[in-house]
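Quick illustration, no need to memorize.
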Amino acid sequence: MEAVRIIKTINSDRLPELNNFKGKEVEIIILPNINNKSEVDEYESILELRGSLKTKIDGMAFQNKIRKEWDR
């Protein structure tokens, strides 16, 4: 993931979210929007694999066993 870092004094009121910072020096970090379609498609393809690995262990039983060990 790429990011852009900018140090700037806020002089404009074009973005109402920045009104509290007007006249102050701020650090602005710009990150890409992670909600784009390609990343959603990748996540959905991972979900298709759910349940495909056949195990002899019941997942909920294993989780309960581990939690009981924490209570000791």
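Residues 59-70 form the longest helix (12 residues).
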